[in-house]
Design goal:
The chain has an eight-stranded mixed β-sheet, with helices on both faces. It has a four-stranded antiparallel β-sheet with strand order 2-1-4-5, with helices on one face. The two termini are 14 Å apart. The protein is of the alpha/beta class. The protein has eleven helices and twelve strands.
Amino acid sequence: MTPLLSIQDLALEFNTFDGSYKAIDHVNLDLMPGETIGLVGETGCGKSVLTRAAFGLVPTPPANITSGSVKFEGREILNLSPAEQRAMRGRDVAMIFQDPMTFINPVFKVGTQLVDAVRAQRRGQVSKTEARDIALAMLDKVHLPNPVRQFESYPHQLSGGMRQRVLIAMALMAEPKLLIADEPTTALDVTIQAQILDLIAELVEDMGISLIMISHDLGVVAQNCGRVAVMYSGQIVEDAPVKQIFDAPCHPYTKGLLGAVPHPLHASEGLKEIPGTLPNLYRPPTGCRFADRCTHATAACSVKRVEQITVADDHRVTCTLFADQHVDA
């Protein structure tokens, strides 16, 4: 089966007054039709930049894609014109951003923005009346209370959870093939977080779309994704089905992340921290970027660049510890 999204050898850097900040380092990632994948890692590891760069949402300059390929349904995206990329976004690929108040215009009513989004996505093929009906139907689909009333409201008149539902409705009105949810529950209380996550899972299943969920919360990923890609300092260090990640993690960084999650049955043991600090991406290490923090590192780890190794069926890891366990994909 041809991947819906195929990112190959993608590298991106930001040109700053201090030099080139190498944010994404030769990343490979495939997403199949109907697949759900969680992108996890600590703040600043490149999760959001990776997905935004893939669809032309990182301004160039200061960003500069130095190598790689991004294909959607076999079509190269990086070679498309800005107009062609805009036509793809919303219609084929949609994104739910972290803070809905940042991405909903505060001076226009919710309904006005939804109608404009429908007409833009459908290239003027529907009237304002038809667009209004589509928007109201989607507000009802995302379980927004009293859709007609909220349609006539300004964003500041809605709660955080309601604004997030509006953003989800806006993203899904064109029935895209791929949905990218960038930490969609940030700043929401726990109860509303659960409702939003359940809603996304329900819509993804009902509409048959693929999902990339970006999150710090490993529990969220375990509940909502079939596969996990773990990022560290601009690299994907491990990529495997969710069960394998949690039951048999390979990369020391993945093990460190899982060890830092509090466990109710072992509260007395405290949290396990990952020693050291993140590498300087203005001058990244020539070898493994995690080597200075890894308790299993050897001299070779700091010298030789590590390539992605397939250690089991659909389980890949970027670590020299598994070089002798390589199996054919």
